[in-house]
Amino acid sequence: MFASVLLAAGILAGASPASAAPSDLCAQVGYTAGFRGDALVTAVAVALAESSCNPTATNVQNNTPPSTDRGLWQINSYWHREVDDNCAFDPQCNANAAYAISSGGTDWGAWSTYNQGAHLRHLGEARDAVDRLGHHEPGPAPLVFPSESGRVVSARSADGRLEIFAAGADGIHHAWQVGVNGNWSEWESLGGPAGAELAIGPNADGRLELFAINGSVFQHRYQTAPSAGWSGWEDFGGGGKDIAVGANGDGRMEVFASGPKGLFHRYQTAANSGWSPWESAGGGPADSRIEMEKSSDGRLEVFAINGDVFQHQFQTAVNGGWSAWEEFGGGGADLTVDHNQDGRLEVFASGPKGVFHKYQTNPTSWSGWEATGGPADAQLTSERSPDGRVEVFAINGSVAQHLWQTGVNAPYGQWETFGGGGSEVVAATNADGRIEVFGTSRDGVHHRWQTGFSSWSEWAWLNTTSGPPVG
């Protein structure tokens, strides 16, 4: 599940349904587990990439920490201890676990083969197996969740390598992993808007697109092919305060920008294509920090906060129009939004009294605000561990701290020190599911990465150079 699969005659599998081909077994148990439509096809393709649909397959190579990937969907023994060997090597129980971990087939971020696109070459075989099964009920496609925006942003290229962009006083700087889950390149200077806020997201064809805004100018650049080189900077609009980008269910990117007159947005007129003119988003907080997330049904949601007010807007249908702005709470310094394994959204906001938390109790209603403690007036980011727990990171000028769920879809523990102070923090996931955190200061850009459930590397430069100062 977190490395390439080594097929072996492992522990004896439980009784398996009769099947004409290995892919038929995956289709049958996947359907029984609850996968439907596109989600079922993707599930079979992921299992083919992970195990060749061999229920006794095991892998221990390249797993960090040392652990075993097991069975059809290669459920990892470390990150998913709730799945014992008896279950992991039973085809139906393994499929049931994969259904739960993938949130019903909408979130495959815990599988390295999906993150690296290795499942794509198996889609034809997977569709054939689903066709032979004879069930064509509609079902969800995997959701594309937005990445965190800020003065430093990171996302995976189509081949699974992380890329990072940091905004300095002299423009944007860029570094990338030279191998999947691996080491980093030297930093390169790209020019572009100075002191910018950044957002990054994938086109439907897998090409990343980067957006940069400051008070005077808005520009973007994009990969010329998946995992390939980048275009030059192109104008995208006038200046503003902050930006966020997400992908609609049909693959079209949608960009929001805040400024002194509220929020505006523009969107691709077709997947991988040109853009609409700028349109008013119907108001929203002026000069706000904004983040975007995706509901479990695929609708984009936008959250915007300034020093006085916090508001929320959401699509009324997948790929559709937008609601009016709703009051979401008082003002604050920054925010981060993530999703539980069951799809419910989690929102954190910082202010002078620390970090507060609000979460969906069901798809249409929210809890009240709850105090969590944490650093005052901090910059925030969040990401999900390979087992599906949300982890939150906060940094201000004095300290960096870290908070995480005690279990999947569960409450949170206590804040723990994560390092010294800085100016910005962002988290991303490697192709093997491990979180990597980037922290910035006037000294440059550091990073830490997960080595286990609660163990982390020390802070280090990405390579031999510090990268740009981010004040």
Would you give an account of this structure?
The protein is mainly beta and 471 residues long. It is built from six helices and 32 strands. Strands 20, 21, 22, 23 and 24 form a five-stranded antiparallel beta sheet that branches. A four-stranded antiparallel beta sheet has the order 4-5-6-7, with no helix packed on it. The chain has a four-stranded antiparallel beta sheet with strand order 8-9-10-11, with no helix packed on it. The longest helix is centred in the N-terminal third of the chain and has 15 residues, at 37-51. The two termini are 39 Å apart.
Q: What keyword list fits this structure?
A:
471 residues; mainly beta; five-stranded antiparallel beta sheet; four-stranded antiparallel beta sheet; 6 helices; 36% strand
List the helices and strands and how they pair.
Layout: H1 22-33, H2 37-51, E1 58-59, E2 69-70, E3 75-76, H3 85-88, H4 91-101, H5 112-115, H6 123-133, E4 152-156, E5 162-168, E6 171-176, E7 188-191, E8 197-202, E9 208-213, E10 217-222, E11 234-238, E12 242-247, E13 253-259, E14 262-267, E15 279-283, E16 289-294, E17 300-305, E18 309-314, E19 326-330, E20 334-339, E21 345-351, E22 354-362, E23 365-366, E24 370-373, E25 379-384, E26 390-395, E27 399-404, E28 416-420, E29 424-429, E30 435-441, E31 444-449, E32 460-461
Antiparallel strand pairs: 1-2, 2-3, 4-5, 5-6, 6-7, 8-9, 9-10, 10-11, 12-13, 13-14, 14-15, 16-17, 17-18, 18-19, 20-21, 21-22, 22-23, 22-24, 25-26, 26-27, 27-28, 29-30, 30-31, 31-32
Helix pairs in contact: 1-2, 1-4, 1-6, 2-6
